[in-house]
UniProtKB/TrEMBL annotation:
GO molecular function: protein kinase inhibitor activity
Lineage, broadest ranks: Bacteria, Pseudomonadati, Chlamydiota, Chlamydiia, Chlamydiales
Protein name in UniProt: YbhB/YbcL family
UniProt entry keywords in alphabetical sequence: Protein kinase inhibitor
Gene3D superfamilies: PEBP-like
One Pfam family linked to the record: PBP
Organism encoding this protein: Chlamydia suis
Keyword Manganese attributed: no
Length: 150
């Protein structure tokens, strides 16, 4: 399975428009090679480079989406999401744009193909979603972009 974006390549900078310094909308994403047995997709976006004085664990969850149709090949930038969204670290539901306070950070986009449609519970945390997905992951893919404020 592959995950890509028309806005940036793996390891390259995420354009400003998708950050807190821009419009702050979600970037376009494309999924390919989804297993035919998949019943749903889940997406987690996180930053592992958060300073310890901001988050002790060094991790900021920017977006959680699950129960995406496995037939979805693309999410347009700023797309309205027809799936369930979870809580980001800011305590909000939906996409939280990159806004690193100190230096260049890495942003990992993970997509999971699942053999089930998960029970719908808006506002789940990353930990709750990972627990619900346990034993149901058919395939995964990742995309990583970087962002540094001007």
């Amino acid at each position: 399975m592959q995950l890509s974006s028309q806005a940036f390549s793996y390891g390259r900078p995420i354009p400003k428009k998708y950050s807190c310094q821009g419009v702050g909308i979600s970037p376009p994403l494309s999924f390919s090679g989804v297993p035919k047995e998949a019943k749903s997709l889940a997406l987690i976006v996180e930053d592992p480079d958060v300073p310890a004085h901001v988050r002790e664990d060094g991790l900021w969850v920017h977006w959680i989406v699950y129960n995406l149709s496995p037939m979805v090949a693309n999410l347009a930038e700023g797309a309205q999401i027809f799936a369930v969204q979870g809580l980001n670290t800011a305590g909000e539901i939906g996409y939280c744009p990159p806004c690193p306070p100190d230096a260049k950070h890495r942003y990992y986009f993970y997509v999971y193909a699942l053999d089930v449609v998960l029970p719908e519970e808006e506002g789940v945390t990353k930990e709750q979603l990972l627990e619900a997905m346990e034993g149901h992951v058919l395939a995964t893919a990742e995309l990583m972009g970087t962002y540094e404020q001007d």
